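Weekly structure sync, notes
Attendees: PL (lead), two postdocs, one rotation student
Agenda item 3: pending single-chain targets
PL asked that the sequence for the first pending target be pasted directly into the notes so everyone works from the same version. It is reproduced below exactly as submitted, 196 residues in total.
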Amino acid sequence: MKFVLTLASVVLLWLSQAVMAGETLQADNLFPKVILHTSLGDITVELDRSRAPITVNNFLSYVKTQRYNETVFHRLISDFVLQGGGYKKDFEPITTLDAIFNESGNGLRNEIGTIAMARTSNPHSATSQFYFNLSDNESLNPGARWGYTVFGRVMEGMDILQQVNEWETAQHKITGWPDVPVEPIVLHRVTLVPEG
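Predicted structure, written out during the meeting:
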């Protein structure tokens, strides 16, 4: 019994350190920038820590621990969203941190060119998966119900999002999921842009 408790404490400590990892990256920078290096080119995103601190620190935790490396954008709906951050190229799920609090009431809207957190029907279920808005998606904003948390905006690379908007999708042969890009769109890595 003592060993089980000790092992559980180690796991909890590891998880808490991973969550805190994002807080240590450019801790005084309210608008850190990251570059998503994809198989189609680079997308530079400015994150908004002033409006979505929990979400930005969570995202940066995945960046720091390199969990987004060699993942795929597994869901693409034209004129809606391009979603990734959850699966390796073989569609094995990545290891995720604890779910985070929903910050969708922060005033940022699901407009074309923004990045936001994907989640289940549980409003506080977002972990690693994120999406780019390929159009103005008013239905994803908060209102009478919880919305989807926007936490940044594309600064460079909108041409890539315009290109994937025309990408062919199909039902995935292994998972059975609809709207999977036929030609994989790979996220090779995410790097933090140095301050200054």
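Discussion points:
- The first strand starts at residue 33 and ends at 38.
- The first helix runs from residue 2 to 24.
Action: rotation student to compare against the earlier draft before next sync.
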